[in-house]
C-alpha cells in the first residue's frame, strides 16, 4: 500500500500509537491515530523504530505482473542511475550542467530548476552514466512514495563555503532510508571561504564518514563553476557502480518508472521514463500507472528518435492514452486487452482509495470537533 494510517502502522510494528505519534512529531508531522501518512513518511518512522520496510504494490500482486525473474546468465552490466541532492544553492544544477557540459542554468528563470528530466553521458571509456535531473529531493521522494526506486547512487552536493545545511541533512536521511550509497561532492572549492574539512567533520556528526576520515563514503572536491573535479566525480560513480555490480537483462520486455510527464499540445501525453529492465521498443504496449498505450515514438535525451532503449536509458515516450503520474512504474505487456484490463483495475483502485481518504479525513475532522 502507498499509504497507511498511523494506528495501523503502530499495529504492524507492535508499537504504541502514542510512540508513533511522538516519532512523527519529531519529524514535524502532527498526526492523529486515524491520520493517513504516505509510504515515505511511514518508512522513516519504521526505520526510527529499528525495523525494515518491504513495499508491495497490491494491485500488481493481484494482477500477477510483479515481474519476470531473470536468470543470472541473462544479466548484463548496465549504467548506474544517479540523483544529485543537496541544500538549495549548493550547486546541484551547476554540477548537473557541468557534467552534461551543455549549459541549461542560463535558461533558468530565477535560478530555480524548472526542467525535470534525465540525461545520459558517455565517457571516453564508452561507459555510460545516467543522471536524473530533478528539482531538489522531490522526484526522489515522490518516486519512492509511489513505489519506484530508480536511483543507484546519490551525489550529495555540499558547498564548501556553507557546510551541512537542513536540506543536506534531509538528503542524507532519504539516502540512508533508501539504502542508496552516497558520494559527497564538496563543491565551490574555488571560493575563498571554502573549508572542506569543516564539511567533512559536519558530515561526521550526521553519520556520514568520508574516506579521508576512515569511512566508506567517497568524497570529491569540485568546482562546478570552474568545471574542476568532474572526472573525479564520474570516477567515483563508476567505482560505486562496480561495487554495486549493477546488471539488467536487456532481452526481455521493459519495466521501469515514469520520471516526468506532461500533456503536450501537439504530441499528446508525453512521459519521460527510465527503463530499468529489458529493452523498450517502438510499438511496445505499455502500462504506466493508470494509463496505457502503444509506444508511437521513442526519443532520447537529445530529442532524437530512436527505435529501442536498453536498460538505464532515459527516454521520452509518445502514445499513452493519458498523462501518468511521475514516479509510477511502467511495464510492457502482451497486448491491448491486457493493458486496458490493468489500467481499468488501477483506476478503480484509485477511486476506492480516494473515497477511503475522504472518509478518513472526515473521521479526523470529527475527532477534532468532538
Ligand atoms: P542548486 O540550487 O543547488 O541547484 O544551486 P545552483 O547550481 O543553482 O547554484 C547556486 C549558485 O551557486 C549559482 O549562482 C551558481 O553559479 C553558484 N555555484 C555553483 N557551483 C559553484 C562553484 O563551484 N563555485 C562557485 N563560486 N559558485 C558556484
Ligand atoms: Mg537547482
Automatic annotation (TrEMBL):
TM ranges are none
Boundaries of every Tr-type G domain copy: 77-245
Where located?
A: Cytoplasm
Provide the binding site for GTP: 86-93, 133-137, 187-190
Q: Name one GO cellular component term.
A: cytosol
Q: Which GO MF term does the entry hold, naming one?
A: GTP binding
The record's similarity note reads: Belongs to the TRAFAC class translation factor GTPase superfamily. Classic translation factor GTPase family. IF-2 subfamily.
Q: What does this protein do?
A: One of the essential components for the initiation of protein synthesis. Protects formylmethionyl-tRNA from spontaneous hydrolysis and promotes its binding to the 30S ribosomal subunits. Also involved in the hydrolysis of GTP during the formation of the 70S ribosomal complex.
- Name the record gives this protein: Translation initiation factor IF-2
